[in-house]
Structure prediction request, 385 residues.
Amino acid sequence: MMKAAIAGDEGAYRRLLEEIARSVRAMARAAFARARVGDADIEDAVQETLLAIHLKRHTWDARQKLAPWVYAIARHKIVDAMRRRGARRVEPLEDFQDFLAAPEPEDPHALSDARRLLETLAPRQRDIVSSISLEGQSIAATAARLSMSEVAVRVALHRALRSLGAAWRRSMA
Amino acid sequence: MRTSELIAALAADPVPEPIRLGQRVAAAIVLGLIGSLAIYALFLGPRPDIAEAGRTVRFGLKFVDAFAFALPSLLLMLRLARPDAKPGALAFWLLLPFLLLSAGVAVELLVVPSNQWLSRLIGQHAMFCTRMIPLMAAPLLAALIVALRAGAPLHPALTGALAGAASAGIAALLYASHCPDDSPLFVATWYPLATLICAGAGALAGRRFLAW
Prediction:
C-alpha cells in the first residue's frame, strides 16, 4: 500500500495513514499510561508521527517491511512527546505488531498543538492547509478559489507541511 | 486540527521527487572532495620522494588503514540515516583498521630500537597532521551533514560522528601522500587524534542539524 501511496495513489495513502494513526494512537496510549503521564498529548504524538512519516517517507526502503519502519518513527516521536511532558523514566515500548491488531478510534474532542502551530504559518499557506484539511476541499477547488494553479497549490501545501514539521521541532526545544 | 484533517492534508500533498539517500551522499562526497583537494593543492601537495616511499610497507599501511576506516564508517553512517536501521555486522568492520594498526605498531616496536621510539612517535609534523586532517575533512563533513538532512536518523549525534569519522578517513588518505612520517607509531598517535576531533565536530553538527 505504501508503494502505491509513494507512486501517487491518494486514496491508498489516506487509508494507510488512517490505519497507522489508529495503531500509533493505541501505542501512545499504552506508553503514556505506563509512564503515568496524562493522556492529553496522545493526539499530538499521533499527528507528529504522521507528519514525520510523511516528510521522511523516502527513508523507507521498499525492500524492507513497512511495520518496523513505522514503529521506529512512532517510538521516536512518542518518546519525544513523553519527554516534553516531563516523564522521567521512558521505558522501551512493546513491539508495534501488537498494536496493529488493536486499533483505536480517534477521540473527536481532542484538541492539539497542530492548530496552534498552524497559526505560525504564512497566511496563504495556512489558508491552503485549512482549506484542504479542515474544509475537505480538493486541490482543484482550492486552486480555483485562490485563483492559483493546481501546481502552485500543491507546492504551497508541501512547503506548509514542511514548515509545520519544523515548527513542531522548535516547539519541542 | 483533528488527526483526520491532518491526514487529508498529507494525502493531498504531492509526491515529491524520490530522494535517494545513497545518491545524495555520493554527490556530497564528490563535492566535499573538491574542497579537500583544493586545500591539499594549496597547502600540501604530494611529498617529493613519493615514488620511493610508495615501495615501502610503512607508507602503504597508511593508505590501507585510512581506507579500511573510511569505508565502514561511511556505510554505517548511511545505514543509521534510516530510522529502522540495524548496524549489524558492519560495526565490527570498524575494528579492522584498529587491528591492522595495532599489528603495525607491534611490528614497529620489534624492528626499531627502543631509543628511537619516541622520535618516531613524535615525527616531524605532529601538530601539522592534527591540524590538516580536520581542515581537509571539514568540506566533506559539511557536505555529508547537508546530504544527511534528508535522512531520519534515530541517533543524530552518532550518525554525525560517523560522518566526521568518514570525512577524517578520506582526508587521511590525502594527507598520507604528503606526510613524511610513515612510522605506525606516528600514525597510531596523531591520525586517531585528528579523527577524534572530526568525529566530535560531527557529533555536535549531527545533534544540531540532523534531529527531526
